[in-house]
Structures are given as C-alpha cells and as structure tokens.
C-alpha cells in the first residue's frame, strides 16, 4: 500500500485517470496512513467516513468519464478553514465544539474539483506561532528526526500539522495559511514544498482570520508541480471577499518549463545576517550556483529595510488579531464560561479559551491601538510597511525573482529555543517581508543539514507572477535532487 | 456662519437663581438608510420580523465571514450629503470601532472615523413666526447598526436578536449651534423632512429608523462652552424637547448648588420625563479605531456623484422660496406647506393658476381642521386638490359667496361631490340680478322705519345692519356688494 | 516602554481577558520584551512616508442592493451556547 502513498499528486491524478487504481484504494491507503501517523498528532479531526464517501463519488465520476481536476486526490485541510458540518477549531479551546454551517471558499473549491478530504490538520492556536507548540490540541511532531537523536522536533508553524501530514505521506497535499511564514517555514522544516501566493489570489472567505491584511491561503505538497496543480484549484476571484482580486488564474503547471535562461535572480545582501549558520549560507550559495548553471543571472540587490520587517509585523499582526478575535465572546458559538455579569462572562470565557501566546498577542495588539499609542506604534508600523514594499518595487526594476533561505535554522526540538517569545519570532525573519509586501513566495527543499534535517530555499516573485516563482522553484528542485524521506513517514 | 448666528437671543435664555443661562445643543442623528439589504451583507431589512431571521452569517460574525459593501447605501449617503449642501469626500475610509457588547457580534462596529464620506454642510431651521436660522452640519458617515438587546423577557437574562445587526446607518452630526429645546426639535423636524424628500430614510422614529443622541450643556451667555452630557437614543421629537428642557434645568441647578457637570452618557426616561446616567460602567471608553483591513478605501467616481446630483428632487427650502415668490405666500404659510412633500404637492395642485393665498388659507384652515379631526393624512383627504380648486373657481367667478363657500366645503367633505354639483343641488348660486334684491331691500326699509330714521339722521354705520337684514332675507345668496349699492341708493331717496 | 502591572490590568480589561492570578508579572515582562523589540522602529524617520494599510492598489468593489442572504435562523443559532425562543441569551445587562 505504501506505494500509493508514495506517489506524487500528479502521478496519483494520472494513475486514477488511467484506472491503474481506484480512488477508494488510494483513499484507503491514506486513511490507514493517517491512523498510523497518529503519534505525530498532525490531525485534530480525522474524517475517514467523509473521505470514503467522497472517494466513492470520485470513482463514479471517473467511471462515467467526467473526472474533475483533482478527482479522487486525498488532501488534508488546515483546521483554520471552516468546513461545513465538520468541527473547526483553529486549535483553540475557545471555539469549543464549533460546527460551521458553511464551507470556506478555498476548501469548497478543492471539493468541487473532486478532492477527497481525509481530515483537519493541527496548527498553532489561531495560526499564532512558528513551532505548532501553541495548539490547544497538543504539539505536532516533525516526521524528521536528527541522525542518532530520537528527540521529537517541531514541524514549524503555524501550518505544522499540514506540513507534517504531507511529509509523513498521510495525504498528497494539504492547505495552509501564511501570515508571516506559516506555510513556507513548516515546508522547509518538513522537507516539502509550500507556496504563499500573492495577497488577494486566494479568497479568505471562511478562513478563521488572524491578521486580515496579511493572511493568505496556499498549498503544501511534495513537489513544485503538485503545489502548482493545487494552487490553480484554490485560487480565483471571490465576490464574497472584498480583498480578492479579479484576475484570471493561469495554468501554473504550464509555467514549469525548466527554462530560467535570461532570468535575473536577486540576492538580497540584508538576508546575510550575522550569526547565520554556515549550513544555511552554503545552501544559499548552492542555490545561486544551480540557477546560474541553468542560465539565470544572479544580481546582488539591497532590501534596506529588511531588519524592520519583524518589528513592524509584530505590531500590525497583533493589532489586527486583537480586533479579529473580539468575536470570540462566548455568545453566539464556541466556549462559554459563565459569569455573574456579561463582562465576567467575557473575561472568564476569553481568559480560559485563549492560550498564553494568543493572550499575549491580543494584549499587545490592544495596547498598540489604544489611545495615545496608535501613532507611535500602529501608524509607524504601517509607514515602515510602505518602506518595505518600496524596497521590493525598487528591486523588481532590476530582477525577475529573489532567492533567499526560507528559515534561519533547521527544525529544532521543543524547548530548545528559550521560551522567550522573541527568539521564536525570529524564525520568520526571512519570510515576513513577503507578507507585508503582499508578494508570492515559495519554499523548496534544497538539502539536508549535517544532522540530516531538511533545509529550504525561498523564491519570491512580483505580485501575481506566481508563474515565474514556480518556474524558478522547479529548477531549484530539479537541481537539488532532494529525495530524502523522513523515517517518521508511514 | 453657524455658531455666530446662534447668539444669545434673550428669549432663549433660562432664568436661574444666579441669573440667565444659555443652553447649547448639538445633535448626532442616526438615520437608517432606506435599502433592501444590509450595509455589508445580503440579508433583508424589515421591521418586526421573527428573531434572527434576517441575519446572514456575516451579520452574526461567524468565523471567517467578510464584509462586502452595498453600493446603493453609498449612493444614499451621497444623496443625503448633497441634500444637506455638504462636501462629498471622493475618498473615504471604513474603520473598526472596537468595544464589547452582546448585540455587537463582531466585537467592533464598522464605521468611518477620520475620513467620513460626507463633510461640512448646513441645515436651515424654520422657527415660529417664519424666522429661520442656519445650523452647521459637521459630517455624515456610514456605519453598521447593532443588534437588539431585550431586557424585559426574563428576570435573569437579556435576549439578543441580530435582525438589525449590520443595517446601514447614516450618522449625521450637527455643530453645537442650537440654543433652545424648540430649536433642537426644529432641527430634527427639518432633517426628517429633508431625508423624506430625498427618500434616503423613512424618518420613522417609533420604529427606530431615526434616533437622536442629544448633547446638552449650559453656560452663562458669552461664556465658553460648559461640560456636555450626551442623552442617547431619544426616539421622538417631543422627547428631544422634553429631554433638553429637563437636562438644561438639571445642569443649571447642579451648578447653582455649587456642583459641577460630569461628562456623561444619559438615558431619557419618557415615563418620568427625566434623564438619568446610564448604569453601564463609565469606564474610560477606548475604541481603538483603525482602518478595517477587510475593506479597501471607498473611492467615488465624479460621474457617480454628478448622476445623483442631477436626480435630486426640489427640497423644502427651495420649494418654500418658490411658493413665496410664485404664490405670494408668507414665510410661515410656505414653511408649513412644504414640511411634508404631500401637503406641498396638494397645495400646488389646488393653487395652480389660482390665487395661492386663498388656496393656502383653505388648506391650512378648513382642510387641516378636517384632517386633524378625522386623523387622516392629506394623501387620503376627503376633498381632492382638484375638488378644492373647483370650489376656489366658483368663489372667484362670484358663483358663490365666501360665506356660502364654507357650507359648500363642509358638504364636499361629507358627500365627496364636486362644489359645482353641490351648489346646483342646494341652489346656493349667488343672486346677482337686482330684481329680488330690490324687493328684499324695499321690504327691510318698509319694516324698519326707526332704523331708517337713525340712518338718515346721520348714522351711516347702520348700513351694515341693513345689508345683514337683506342677506338674511335672501338666505345669504345675494351678492353683498350689490346689496350695499342698492340700499345706499334707496336710503338716499 | 516597559509595562507595569496596572497597565497590564488595564489592557486585559480592554481586551476582556482574565489574567490567571499570579501570571501578571510574567505577562508584564513578556509584553515589555515584545514592546522593546518592536520599538526598533524608532530608529527610522518616517516623516512624510504614507502609511500602508493594504498591499493592494485596487478600488473597493460595491455590491448591488439585493436580498441574497438571511432566512437561516437555525444556522445562525446552531452553535449557540445558550438560546431561547430563537434568541441568543446572556446574563442580564443593566443600562
Ligand atoms: Mg454617537
Ligand atoms: Zn454612530
């Protein structure tokens, strides 16, 4: 059976069409893999019955010859996407046993394309975290382990469950959301591919909001081609989201020409940070060399305000979150902890319902928006955001795409990084600018660290130029020949 | 132009123990936009529906739900702005006003804070005696209404109905330009009249589609503004007047007793006719406004505004001016007639090509009396504008006398028949041929030798008495002018 | 800016979050550390830099005024912790 779970999404899609195996068989193999992988805690809610039902429908369609783009393909959905009649938790206690009466636009599009949902994956509570340690449903273990070291490692975050689920071969792809790096960093930690498209490319309707001006949905898979196939189905204009952009969705798979000749690839000097590990630096150098060999031209560029991206992010994201999370008040849905007065009810419910990191961020956000501090913090951060966006606009006058490491380190063990929140925030140092500027960015597994852990490279593109991002990432992928598999895989 | 005109007119001053006081009033009016669906969702707007039956998942603030703005509500706000001769801001921004309340599902209200869709404008108050004064409009912005909290259903619980949640409101803020309860009432009356002319709000205060927050402070004439109290959600014009009167008195007495007015949000208790501080903790409100990241700035196209401007109806002030000019009405009469579009239309239909003054007199006198007595609106008037016009014509061409006309009008109300028909049936036609009048005059003279003597003795005023007698004899149908001449002639003999 | 307990209490109140007894100091320390971190922005002079609220340069789309939603009270109330007679219910609120 493991053969079926080792297929790429593209291979599975074609195998189903060619009737080499049935959707039922493919789904069954993955449902078993989901069970086998339970020690990883990658799923909050498994949906085997739903999966079997959908697989049966897919087999019927395949038989009658009207298979859709993702007919019979087993996927996992980050538990931040509201799914009709399937519990949605955002990995928080405060949603209690929330059963959405609606399907998010993105997960709905995947189902409409014939995908088979095997479950809802674990994440950092409300997507606030970089290690998946803040989940109210327990931490997720990375299927990868260091050579000769059995300690569980974090999968990254916030979409750690989705990344672990794909890396562990429990599904062929998964959805994620990325507000500051929450798709790209876990993809790098788990040795898979993950792309955050341009802000406005995928509808946010039905996705539990963290920071509305930064949140974007995107896919995880084990190859660049597979993420291209998935993104095409997830993306598209949605009139229900005022920030969704009315733009045709290209066939991203067609962008994978393997030809990057003449492309100018920016190498930002500010990303060469002091204290950056030798391994990461070497990997980056390799990436540059690969693209050069393939006929692209590396160009040194400067993104001068890079060091201010994280501080700006940690004002803007918490500010928006403090307001977005105000609706969790124990009145219309979710957890309610009773109180004498309505205010007691609010404070008890939110005090007990939110975990420590969410409480921290909501309070920071409340503070930076409060009377007398708005200009000094929030307004200032928005101005810095303009400067960061300008840096990229300037750079894209000289280059077609930008190559950087995805994260400053490989996966780490829980508690290895001190519990100082700042140390954790630094994981996103290479990814947040992309969210602030609303650009597309992808992480591709490009090599292994000395202790055998995957490392990723990030390709950043112009707004709505995911095609170039895929094209460059495809070349990095084929040059890197990353074939390693985690032992933790089913 | 506003505050200066609001000088301390002595008639507005309130007598206190320590001398005269001036009350300063500004209004924040929440006007529900007339639209089919809500400001940011496709749920219906309707009063008195089943609880939570007109609520979308957006209005209930379910996780991941997003707002999409209703273009017609934007149009209505612009139309209202133009009606208030206000500046239209081609770029405005929606902000989140963050606070916790059970009927505020999102935990914030989407409103407009620093960049509203409409800026400075003005509104002309029509005051008793046909006086008028201009009040400044500070701004108009679009925002969401909250749901409804019902406190009287259960001793321990408050019930929440979200039907109203997300309904579009225009918050219209005035300058602190009003100086008496009457002026505050006049402001609300005039604003409601303009909104109804424009068709942007039904102005229905008892259904809550028009609610006023009244800001009241007092000061010695010429002194700087005092500390104000905001009286929330007053829902009738009469209550606004009562609330201001009570609150001004309260503040004056407080200060004169050596106390100081605390800035406060208060409620008007209609049963008691008094205001009281809201019990909800007056803890420092900190709304943490910031631009709503789910929405982009609202940008208007010049032709969009031009199109709305081109379709604006004639508004009360212009109508009033035209009625005074074209029909020679007094400011007062014109003001009364244009207050409601229906009465203005009725007047024009009745007055077209006739004497506007007498049309106005008949409408504001006999017709309004009948309407008030029977409690029907002018739209259902038992006497149509055309019918009244017909009667005015009979008066003009002398077919009936003014005195007869009164009876004819009553008959019109009762029978609904045209004046002409009534005059025919009852034979009320005015007698103008002299024969019967001469006869009647001779008889009166013959029957009253004493009066004739006094008259001839030099008491010419008695002529009126003789005319009266002849009119009586002819059942009022004789033309008083003719009677007068004939009598004078005969008595001179 | 380092936050004292009183400020933390004020923010917690604004955010309607009960801070578990004994956690105030740790929380104050964390929040202060985060603020110190974000205050790096003070190094930058941003006079006449326009604030950026969205990465998008597009206009706000406007919907037609049509009734396309509502009429689903059962869905609206489906997840209510407490409801009665079609209403959500909460402890009595005094005005
Ligand atoms: Mg107000
Ligand atoms: Zn308001």
Structural description of this entry:
Helix content of chain A is 37%, strand content 13%. By secondary structure, chain A is an alpha/beta fold. An eleven-stranded mixed β-sheet of chain A has the order 1-3-2-4-6-5-10-11-9-7-8, with helices on both faces. The N and C termini of chain A lie close together (10 Å). The relative contact order of chain A is 0.14. Chain B is of the alpha+beta class and 493 residues long. Chain B folds into three domains: 21-308, no CATH class; 314-426, no CATH class; 434-492, Arc Repressor Mutant, subunit A (Orthogonal Bundle), CATH 1.10.10.410. Helix content of chain B is 39%, strand content 18%. Chain B has 16 helices and 16 strands. In chain B, the strands form four sheets. In chain B, strands 1, 2, 6, 7, 10, 11, 12, 13 and 14 form a nine-stranded mixed β-sheet that branches. In chain B, helix 2 packs across helix 5, helix 3 (181-198) runs antiparallel to helix 4 and helix 8 packs across helix 9 (356-374). The longest helix of chain B is centred in the middle third of the chain and has 20 residues, at 237-256. Chain C has a domain at 5-43. The mean pLDDT of chain C is 94. At the A-C interface, helix 10, helix 11, helix 12, helix 13 and helix 14 of A face helix 1, helix 2 and strand 2 of C. The structure holds magnesium ion and zinc ion.
């Amino acid at each position: 059976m493991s053969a079926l779970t080792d297929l790429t999404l593209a291979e599975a899609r074609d195998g189903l069409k060619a009737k080499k195996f049935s959707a039922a068989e493919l789904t069954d193999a993955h449902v078993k893999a989901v069970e086998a992988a339970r020690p990883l805690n990658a799923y909050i809610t498994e949906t085997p019955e739903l999966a079997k039902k959908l697989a049966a429908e897919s087999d019927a369609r395949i038989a009658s010859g009207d298979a859709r783009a993702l007919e019979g393909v087993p996927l996992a959905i980050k538990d931040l996407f509201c799914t009709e009649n399937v519990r949605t938790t955002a990995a928080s206690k405060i949603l209690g046993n929330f059963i959405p009466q609606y399907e998010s636009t993105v997960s709905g599009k995947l189902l409409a394309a014939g995908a088979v949902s095997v479950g809802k994956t674990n994440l950092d509570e409300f997507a606030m975290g970089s290690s998946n340690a803040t989940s109210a449903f327990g931490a997720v273990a990375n299927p990868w382990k260091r050579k000769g070291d059995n300690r569980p490692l974090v999968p990254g975050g916030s979409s750690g469950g989705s990344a672990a689920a794909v890396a562990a071969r429990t599904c062929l792809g998964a959805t994620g959301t990325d507000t500051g790096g929450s798709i790209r960093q876990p993809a790098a930690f788990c040795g898979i591919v993950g792309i955050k498209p341009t802000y406005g490319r995928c509808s946010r309707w039905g996705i539990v909001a963290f920071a509305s001006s930064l949140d974007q949905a995107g896919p995880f898979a084990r190859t660049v081609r597979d993420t291209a196939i998935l993104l095409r189905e997830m993306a598209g204009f949605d009139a229900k989201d005022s920030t969704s952009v009315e733009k045709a969705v290209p066939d991203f798979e067609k962008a994978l020409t393997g030809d990057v000749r003449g492309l100018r690839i920016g190498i930002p000097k500010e990303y060469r940070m002091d204290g950056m590990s030798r391994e990461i630096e070497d990997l980056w150098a390799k990436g540059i060399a690969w693209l050069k060999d393939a006929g692209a031209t590396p160009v040194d560029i400067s993104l001068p305000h890079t060091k201010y991206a994280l501080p700006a992010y940690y004002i803007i994201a918490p500010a928006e979150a403090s307001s977005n999370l105000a609706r969790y008040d124990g009145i219309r849905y979710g957890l309610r902890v009773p109180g004498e007065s309505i205010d007691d009810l609010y404070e008890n419910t939110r005090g007990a319902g939110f975990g420590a990191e969410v409480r921290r961020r909501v309070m920071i956000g409340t503070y930076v928006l409060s009377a007398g501090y708005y200009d000094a913090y929030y307004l200032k951060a928005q101005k810095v955001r303009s400067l960061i966006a300008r840096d990229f606009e300037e750079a894209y006058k000289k280059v077609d795409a930008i190559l950087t490491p995805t994260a400053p380190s490989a996966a780490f063990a829980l508690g290895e990084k001190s519990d100082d929140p700042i140390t954790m925030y630094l994981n996103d140092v290479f990814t947040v600018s992309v969210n602030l500027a609303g650009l597309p960015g992808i992480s591709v597994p490009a090599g292994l660290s000395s202790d055998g852990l995957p490392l990723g490279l990030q390709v950043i593109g112009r707004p709505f130029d995911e095609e170039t991002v895929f094209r460059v990432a495809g070349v990095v992928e084929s040059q890197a020949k990353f074939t390693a598999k985690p032992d933790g895989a089913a | 132009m506003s505050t200066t005109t609001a000088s301390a007119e002595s008639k507005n001053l309130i007598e206190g123990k320590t001398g005269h006081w001036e009350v300063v009033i500004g209004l924040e009016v929440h006007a529900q936009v007339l639209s089919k669906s809500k400001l940011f969702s496709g749920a219906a707007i309707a009063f008195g529906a089943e609880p939570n039956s007109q609520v979308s998942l957006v209005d209930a603030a379910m996780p991941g739900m997003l707002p999409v703005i209703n273009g017609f509500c934007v149009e209505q706000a612009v139309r209202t702005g133009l009606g208030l001769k206000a500046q239209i801001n081609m770029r405005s921004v929606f902000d989140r006003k963050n606070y916790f309340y059970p009927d505020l599902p999102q935990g914030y209200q989407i409103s407009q804070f620093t960049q509203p869709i409409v800026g400075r404008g003005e509104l002309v108050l029509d005051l008793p005696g046909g006086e008028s004064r201009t009040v400044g409009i500070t701004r108009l912005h679009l925002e969401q209404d909250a749901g409804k909290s019902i406190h009287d259903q259960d001793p321990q619980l408050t019930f929440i109905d979200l039907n109203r949640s997300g309904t579009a409101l225009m918050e219209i803020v005035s300058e602190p330009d009003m100086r008496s309860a009457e002026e505050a009432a006049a402001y609300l009356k005039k604003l409601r009249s303009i909104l109804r002319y424009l068709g942007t709000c039904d102005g229905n205060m008892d259904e809550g589609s028009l609610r006023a927050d009244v800001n009241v402070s007092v000061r010695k004439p010429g002194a700087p503004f005092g500390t104000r109290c905001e009286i929330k959600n007053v829902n009738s014009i009469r209550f606004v007047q009562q609330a201001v009167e009570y609150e001004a008195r309260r503040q004056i007495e407080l200060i004169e007793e050596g106390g100081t007015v605390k800035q406060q949000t208060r409620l008007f208790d209609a049963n008691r006719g008094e205001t009281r501080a809201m019990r909800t903790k007056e803890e420092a409100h900190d709304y943490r406004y910031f631009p709503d990241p789910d929405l982009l700035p609202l940008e208007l196209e010049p032709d969009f505004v031009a199109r709305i401007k081109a379709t604006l109806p004639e508004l009360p002030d212009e109508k009033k001016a035209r009625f005074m000019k074209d029909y020679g009405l007094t400011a007062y009469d014109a003001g009364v007639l244009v207050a409601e579009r229906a009465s203005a239309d009725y007047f024009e239909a009745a007055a077209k090509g006739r004497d506007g003054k007498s049309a106005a007199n008949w409408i504001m006198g006999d017709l309004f009396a009948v309407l008030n007595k029977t409690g029907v609106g002018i739209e259902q008037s038992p006497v149509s504008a055309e019918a009244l016009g017909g009667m005015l014509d009979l008066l003009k061409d002398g077919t009936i006398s003014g005195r007869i006309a009164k009876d004819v009008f009553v008959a019109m109300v009762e029978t609904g028949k045209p004046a002409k028909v009534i005059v025919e049936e009852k034979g009320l036609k005015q007698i103008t041929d002299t024969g019967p009048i001469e006869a009647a005059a001779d008889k009166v003279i013959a029957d009253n030798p004493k009066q004739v003597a006094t008259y001839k003795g030099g008491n010419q005023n008695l002529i009126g008495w003789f005319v009266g007698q002849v009119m009586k004899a002819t059942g009022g149908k004789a033309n008083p002018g003719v009677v007068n001449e004939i009598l004078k002639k005969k008595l001179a003999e | 800016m380092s936050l004292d307990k009183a400020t933390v209490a004020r923010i917690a109140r604004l955010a309607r979050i009960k801070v578990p007894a004994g956690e105030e100091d740790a929380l104050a320390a964390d929040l202060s550390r985060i603020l110190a971190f974000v205050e790096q922005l003070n190094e930058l002079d941003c006079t006449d830099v326009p604030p950026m609220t969205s990465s998008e340069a597009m206009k706000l789309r406007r919907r037609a005024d049509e009734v396309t939603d509502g009429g689903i009270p059962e869905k609206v109330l489906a997840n209510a912790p407490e409801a009665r007679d079609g209403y959500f219910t909460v402890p009595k609120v005094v005005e």
